Amino acid sequence: MAxxxxxxxxxxxxxxxxxxxxxxxxLATGIGLDILKKxxxxxxxxxxxxxxxNVTEPTSTGIGGDCFCLFxxxxxxxxxxxxGSGRCPRALSLQVLKQQGFDEENPxxxxxxxxxxxxxxxxxxxxTVDLFGSKKLTLAEILQPAIELAESGFPVSEVSAFQWNxxxxxxxxxxxxxxxxxxxDGQAPDHGQLFRNPSLANTFKALSxxxxxxxxxxxxxxxxxxxxxxxGGVLDLDDLSSHMSETVQPxxxxxxxxxxxxxxxxxxxxxxxxxxxxxxxxxxxEMAHNSADYLHITCEAFKLSxxxxxxxxxxxxVFPVPTEDLINKVYAAxxxxxxxxxxxxxxxxxxxxxxxxxxxxxxxxxxxxxxACSFINSNYQDFGTGLVPEGCxxxxxxxxxxxxxxxxxxxxxxxxxxxxxxxxxxxxxxxYLEEGIDIDVVEDLxxxxxxxxxxxTGQDRKLFGRGQIxxxxxxxxxxxxxxxxxxxxxxxxxxRADGCAMGYCKV
Length: 507
Description:
By secondary structure, the protein is of the alpha+beta class. The protein is built from 18 helices and 17 strands. The model is unreliable at 352-358 and 381-394 (pLDDT under 50).
């Protein structure tokens, strides 16, 4: 298995006038486009893409994880929000964790069974189709392409193969009795090797035939609970059968005339809104792209917003998150005044934010009617906890590249990125910079006090996420969002993944 990934591709933005899909895997993108051509809308196609990505990129996404959906309905120009995350078991309390020796100084390890929450994706897929779908295709018809892909097999793509191999130890662990269902002869599949997952196909069939009950009750639910409880977890059948997705009001801000929508807490989309509100107070366009000043300001804004989101983000049903206060422009002005233009902040003022990672998938779909669906589906780190039940088988800098520096969608996702993370061990912020950022910039940032890791290359680039963009018209050329050529979709797909954007033109 190759340990490096050459970064040599050069792509143009995809242009079309009909529907368009951008995802991290070509087979999934193609499946989404097929659903659009069969009469499905953006929501229908998004669920088909989510299922296909579960087959082709199981390290990052799947029906055993959570998902979040933003849907724009062109007919009434409204944005809708579906929270498809699952809660922790009701029997898992702080008292239970403390009795088992876990606390802030000794947190639950990432792959521990206590990190298994109720899988929210299955319900959210069904609800997305029910609430936002075209009603022209059934859930069974939408999931059928992924079922066929899992049954017949598919050739594993390069990035997916690398990540699969890197996380294979979770599947090979002694306590993971059925992890071999995601391996071939005990090993991760190689690049180009055909992989079949008939157990996952059967899970999709149960969801297709019986709806949400097919996943949250019966054999699949029993398999999940049996595995979790066999290794010390407390998830039970009632936790699964009582699960529901939630429709919630999206949150938004306006950045220099551009409306940005996110999903409210417990989602961490509020981080983006808080950071944009801070950055709106700086002359970003006057700074050179990826200059030391630009990276310093964006890094400091992220530190403040990440700290707040990690401190406040929780289940609103349990803790009253002050969402409106946090996304208020007045609060952003106060936060802006905390930024030292010449010196990096070293410590975090809101406790110890945990590492969120970037092991998830984001994809986006638009249809010929102008409906749009923005979708996140995540396992939480590579393969999640890695546990397999028996037989069940867009970053902020990217936005600024378009809004401030006039890049088209593909240029925006191609540009070198930065990533800031707080290390609880040394209690210091660390700034990671992708290959392509100038050495002089790196030295200037170090002089400002940043702990810099550069250059991040090869497969380590996954740290910066994998963005997908579909834009209505070419507003970034003029900077005026109200002036667009609304008949043309422009799309870009992140070269840090295997995927692509594809579209078709109206006849």
